[in-house]
Specification:
Two copies of one chain form a homodimer.
Chain A lengths: L17 E14 L2 E8 L2 E8 L4 H8 L6 E10 L12 E12 L16 H6 L1 H4 L3 H23 L3 E2 L17 E3 L7 E3 L5 H9 L4 E9 L11 E10 L3 H20 L7 E4 H8 L13 E2 L1 H4 L6 H5 L2 E7 L7 H12 L9 E5 L5 E3 L7 H11 L6 E7 L2 H18 L10 E5 L4 E4 L4 E4 L14 H4 L8 E6 L2 E8 L4 H10 L4 H14 L7 E7 H9 L29 H7 L1 E3 L5
Parallel strand pairs in A: 3-5, 6-9, 11-17
Antiparallel strand pairs in A: 1-2, 1-4, 2-3, 4-5, 7-8, 9-10, 10-22, 12-13, 13-16, 14-15, 14-16, 17-20, 18-19, 20-21, 21-22
Helix pairs in contact in A: 4-6, 4-16
Pfam families (chains A, B): GAD, tRNA-synt_2, tRNA_anti-codon
Function (chains A, B): Catalyzes the attachment of L-aspartate to tRNA(Asp) in a two-step reaction: L-aspartate is first activated by ATP to form Asp-AMP and then transferred to the acceptor end of tRNA(Asp).
Subcellular location (chains A, B): Cytoplasm
Chain lengths: 586, 586
C-alpha cells in the first residue's frame, strides 16, 4: 500500500496513530533544527515534520526535497504547537519516521498555488502542472459533481442516455463542420456532429420518449470570444410534450443543481418574450442581477430640440446609472470611447448628469431647453445624483444591442454583477427566422426543425419574418445557458420550412432525407432542449472563461499547445486516405 | 397534456378511470362489432377497444388506422373479458371515446415485433424503426442502466469523471488514427483518440488520483469481426496503487453490475497467468463455462507410432468431448473441414472415439498399437463414450490457438456456452512484448507505457521477449471485457522501453514528448484499466454482436447506411481545408 490516509483527512482525533501518506511537496522550510514539509494531494495539505535531533540523516534527506517531488512518508500524527485554523488539517502534523522519494521533479515553470505567477501561455503548455492547482482542480471536480447530479436527476425522470455517433454525415447548414476522411470509402468524409439534433429527433421517431446525452459537439468556427472547437452539451429530447412540459422539467433540473451545488433555492423562473427582452435590455440573454432598464426617449428627444442626430434617429434609448452623476470628464470620455469600439459600434454617447445639487449637465446642453432634461429625468425615473446615458441610431434593435453592452459595462463598473447572485429566466417566443445580411436570405434562428407558433402559421406565407417560434432559452446572469424548441413533426410543414429557407426539395432531401423519410412513419410530437455544460459549470463556479472548467482546452487558434496538436501527418497516412494537402489555394 | 398515463402502467386497480394515452398502433383487428387496437409506447402495450354499437363513426376511424400510426386516445380503463396473463397490462383494456391521429405512417418495411421479418440491411437503413422493437430498445435501456450504475459506483469510490478532448494529435503507433484536417492550421491535422491513454496518465501527473471516463474511442481498422470504428470505453486510472488495488476495485465494480443487472453474486475471481491460459485453453480469454481443457500428448504420441505428422510435431494436444463418441462420420468430416478453414488453419484433425462398448476407433488407427490409445485415454481422462480430438503442429502456441477454436466449436455444439452463465477471471502476467512478423520487431503487447514485472527488469537487456508485464485482462465467457496495466512512471525506464521498441529518442520525443516531459515533474506511481462498454453490455444482454447495443452502428465498410455517411464534401469545404482528393493513388 502506498498510503493509508490522504492529505486531507487527518484530525486531532487521529493523534498518536501511525499513518502512511503520499503526495507532492508543496513547500519545505527549516526552523530551529526542524524541517517542515507541506505535503499535498487532491484531498488537501498535511504538514510533515522532520526532527534533526531524532534522525539527522532523515532530516537531511527531507532538506533535499524540491518543490513538486512526489514522495511517500510514514509517521505518527501529532498535535501541532501552532495550529492553523485556516486548514482542515491545521490542528495536526506528522512526525515523519520514513521518507521515500517516488519521483523527483524539475523546478516547475510556475508556482503551484491558487494565485500562480504563470501566464496563460505557459500554464496551457504545462497544463498537467496547472491542473495541480486546487483552484483549477476544483472546477473539474465541480463539473464531475454536476454531471452526476444531472444524470441521476434525469434517470429518475425516466430519461435514457443514448450515445449517438461522432462520425456522421456533413450537413453544410449552420456552422462549419469538422470533417474526417474515410479510408475505407475513398474520397468520402464523415463529419463530427455540431450537435446530436437530428439523431435525437430520430430517437423520438423510435419511441424513446425521453432521451438525454451529455454529448461532445464540434464546430469549426473562428474562435472569437469564449468558444472552443469542441464543447459539451446536456442534450435532451421528449415526446408527447408541449413547451410547458419541457420548461417545467428543465427548470426543476436547474433548481436541483443550484440547490445541490450552491445551496440556493431558485425562485420560479420568470418568462420574458424575446421582444420584451430586446426592448427592455437589448439582449436575448438579459442580465437581471441589476436594473438600468432601457427607457425609450423618442417622444422626449426627437424633434424637441435641434440635435440633428436625435432628430434623424429611429431609436433613442437611455439607461439611468444610479449615483453616477459625479462621473468625471475623464470617466465620461472613457465611456464615449467604449461605445465607439468596433465591438460596440455606436456612433456617439450622450450623457445627462442630474447633479446632487439639482443642476443638470449634458453633453448636448446647447441643443435643448432645460425643461426637456426635466422630461428626460421623469421618463428615466432619475433622481438627483444619477447619470443618464443615451444612445440613438437608425436601427432600433442594433442600437439596443449597443446600449446593452453599455449597460453591462456600467453594471461591471458599479460592481452590480455579483458572481454569487443568480437570476435565471426563460426567454420565449423567439422569431422563427432571422435575416442574414451575408446570405441575403432568411435563416432559421435555431434550426430548420423548429415549430412555428400555431397562431402565426398563416404568416408563413405572407410575412415569415414576423413568425414566432415555439423556442425558448434558459438565461442566467446574462449567459445563454441552454435553449431548445418544439419540433416540427409534420412532413408537410417541414417541407414548407425548407422552402422558405431556400432549400430546393432535392437539396433538402440530400441533406436531411433520413429525417424527412423517418417522419413518414408516425413521428410523435416532440420537443427538446440543450444546456451548454461548459457554460453551466462556469456559471456555477463563477469562472471568467469556459476554458477554466475544461481539462485540456484549446487556444484561440484551435491549438492544444500542450499536445502540440494539430500537426502534420506522416505522408503514408495521407496516401492511405488518398488526400493531398494543397496550400497553394491560400 | 398529450397523455395522462403510459401504455405500460395500467392495472385492474385503475378500472373505471378515464385516461389519455399516446403511442403507436402495433396492430388492429375487428371482431364482432368491436375494433381492437394494440397501442405501444416505450413502456408497454395497452389494448384499446372501439365499440361500433356505441360510436360507429369513431369505430370507423379506428378501422382506418394503419400499423405504426402515431395516435392519442381518451377512454375508460375497464376489466378485460379474456385476460392476457403474458402482458403486464393484460387484465385491462381502454374503452375508447376519443381518437386523435398525431401522425400517419407509411407501411413500415418490416414488422415491428421482437421477431421481425426484416433482414439486417433493411433494418439498418431504417434503424429508427428497428429501434421501435422492444428487443432492440431494451439493449439501449440496459446500456443506460449500466452506465448509471458504473458512474455512481465510481463516484462513491472518489473517482472523478474528466472529459478529455476528442481532437488530439496523431501518434502513428498501434492502430490507424482517424484524422481531422484543421482549417485554422492549414496542412495540419488533429487525430481522434484511439483511447484517452496518454491523457489519463497526464491527469495522474496532475494529481487527480482516481479518474474515470466513459469515453468514445476511434480506430480506423478494417472492420473484421465484431468491431466498430467508434466504440466506448469505461476508462479508469488510479495513482499510488499496485496491481492488487486495481483488480480489487474493478472486480468489485463487475460484481456490483452482475448483481444489479442480472441478480448474480459473482464469486471471487480466479487469477490465471497468460502462460497458464495459453497452455490449458489456447487463449488469453478462455471460456471457463465448460471444461474440455487441453491435454498435451507429446509423451504419449510423439515417437510411439509411425504417424509422421505427430512424429515431426513440436506440439500435440487434445480435448476430450464428453459423450461424443457416437459422432457420425459426417459429423467428424465436418469437424475436419472446420479446422481446415483459413480462420482456424490447422493441418489436420485426428480423432479417437472411445466407444460406449469399450472399443476404440481412431482416424489414425493404423499408425499406433492399441495400447497407445489406452495411454491417450488415461492422459485425457476420457471415459467410454467420449470423443478425443487432437491437433498438432510446429508452433505450440499457434496450434493451441487452433485447438481453442475447436474447443469453442465443440462447446457450442454441445450447448455448453450458456448465455445466462457467467464465469469471469483475471488473466495476469502478460508478456510485455510480442514479436511482429509483419514489422519484424518486438511490439508492445499493450502499449509502450506498461510496467515490466520488477523481477524481470534484468531480462530487458538480455531476453526482452521473456519479460512479463504488470498487465491484466478481465475475461468473461471467452470475451476480453477489459484490460489494463501498471504504468511506467520513471523516465529512465520509459526511455529504455522506447529503445527496445525501436524508437529513436527523436521519434519518441516527437510522438510522446508531452508525456515524457510531464514525467519529469514528480509523476506518481499509477495504474489503470479500461472496460469495453459495448462488449460489457453485449455480454450482460446475451447479444451476438455489439451492434445490437449501439443506437446507430456502422456496417463492415464503416458506413452508416441510415445517414448515408460518409459522403462527398461540397467542393467549397475542401477548398477551405486546402485539401484535394486524389483517387489516382489507389
Amino acid at each position: 500500500m502506498y498510503r493509508t490516509k490522504t492529505c486531507g483527512e487527518l484530525r486531532l482525533t487521529d493523534a498518536g496513530n501511525e499513518v502512511k501518506l503520499a503526495g507532492w511537496v508543496q513547500r519545505t522550510r527549516k526552523m530551529g533544527g526542524m524541517t517542515f514539509v507541506d505535503l499535498r494531494d487532491r484531498y488537501g495539505i498535511t504538514q510533515l515534520v522532520f526532527d534533526e535531533s531524532k534522525d539527522a540523516a532523515l532530516c537531511e534527506r527531507a532538506n533535499k526535497l524540491g518543490r513538486e517531488f512526489c514522495i511517500q512518508v510514514v509517521g505518527v500524527v501529532s498535535e501541532r504547537q501552532s495550529k492553523n485554523p485556516k486548514m482542515p488539517t491545521g490542528d495536526i502534523e506528522i512526525l515523519a519516521s520514513e521518507l521515500n522519494v517516488l519521483s523527483e521533479s524539475l523546478t516547475p515553470p510556475f508556482t503551484i498555488e491558487d494565485q500562480t505567477d504563470g501566464g496563460d501561455d505557459i500554464r496551457m503548455k504545462y497544463r498537467y502542472l496547472d491542473l495541480r492547482r486546487s483552484a483549477v482542480r476544483k472546477n473539474l471536480e465541480l463539473r464531475h459533481k454536476m454531471t452526476i447530479l444531472i444524470r441521476n436527476f434525469l434517470d429518475a425522470q425516466n430519461f435514457i442516455e443514448v450515445e449517438t455517433p461522432i462520425l456522421i454525415g456533413s450537413t453544410p447548414e449552420g456552422a462549419r463542420d469538422f470533417v474526417v476522411p474515410s479510408r475505407m470509402n475513398p474520397g468520402q468524409f464523415y463529419a463530427l456532429p455540431q450537435s446530436p439534433q437530428t439523431l435525437k429527433q430520430l430517437l423520438m421517431v423510435s419511441g424513446f420518449d425521453r432521451y438525454f446525452q451529455i454529448a461532445k459537439c464540434f464546430r469549426d468556427e473562428d474562435l472569437r470570444a469564449d468558444r472552443q472547437p469542441e464543447f459539451t452539451q446536456i442534450d435532451c429530447e421528449m415526446s408527447f410534450v408541449e413547451q410547458e412540459d419541457v420548461l417545467q422539467i428543465f427548470e426543476d433540473l436547474a433548481r436541483h443543481l443550484f440547490k445541490e451545488i450552491r445551496g440556493i433555492e431558485l425562485p420560479a423562473l420568470q418568462r420574458m418574450t424575446w421582444h420584451e427582452a430586446m426592448r427592455r435590455f437589448g439582449s436575448d440573454k438579459p442580465d437581471l442581477r441589476f436594473g438600468m432598464e432601457f427607457v425609450e426617449l423618442m417622444d422626449v428627444l426627437k424633434g424637441t430640440g435641434s440635435f440633428p442626430v436625435f432628430n434623424e434617429a429611429n431609436y433613442i434609448g437611455g439607461i439611468c446609472v444610479p449615483g453616477a452623476a459625479d462621473y468625471t470628464r475623464k470617466q465620461l470620455d472613457q465611456l464615449t470611447e467604449f461605445v465607439k469600439r468596433p465591438q460596440v459600434g455606436a456612433k456617439g454617447l450622450v450623457y445627462v448628469k442630474f447633479n446632487a445639487d439639482g443642476t443638470v449637465k449634458s453633453s448636448i446642453d446647447k441643443f435643448y431647453e432645460p425643461e426637456v432634461w426635466q422630461k428626460v429625468k421623469e421618463a428615466m425615473g432619475a433622481k438627483d445624483g444619477d447619470l443618464v446615458l443615451i444612445l440613438s441610431g437608425d436601427n432600433a434593435n442594433k442600437t439596443r444591442v449597443q446600449l446593452c453592452t453599455l449597460r453591462l459595462e456600467m453594471g461591471d463598473r458599479l460592481g452590480l454583477r455579483d458572481k454569487d447572485k443568480f437570476v435565471c429566466l426563460w426567454i420565449v417566443d423567439f422569431p422563427l427566422f432571422e435575416w442574414s445580411d451575408e446570405e441575403q436570405r432568411l435563416m432559421a434562428t435555431h434550426h430548420p426543425f423548429t415549430m412555428p407558433n400555431p397562431d402565426d402559421i398563416p404568416l408563413l406565407d405572407t410575412d415569415p419574418a414576423k413568425v414566432r417560434a415555439v423556442a425558448y432559452d434558459f438565461v442566467c446572469d446574462g449567459v445563454e445557458v441552454g435553449g431548445g424548441s418544439l419540433r416540427i413533426h409534420d412532413g408537410k410543414l417541414q417541407e414548407k420550412m425548407f422552402q422558405i429557407l431556400g432549400f430546393t426539395p432535392e437539396r433538402a432531401m440530400a441533406q436531411f432525407g433520413f429525417l424527412i423519410n423517418a417522419f413518414k412513419y408516425g413521428a410523435p410530437p416532440h420537443a427538446g432542449l440543450a444546456f451548454g455544460l461548459d457554460r453551466f459549470v462556469s456559471l456555477m463556479a463563477g469562472l471568467d472563461s469556459i476554458r477554466d472548467c475544461i481539462a485540456f482546452p484549446k487556444n484561440n487558434s484551435g491549438r492544444d499547445v500542450m499536445l502540440d496538436a494539430p500537426g502534420e501527418l506522416d505522408p503514408k497516412q495521407l496516401e492511405e486516405l488518398q488526400l493531398k494537402v494543397d496550400l497553394s489555394q491560400e
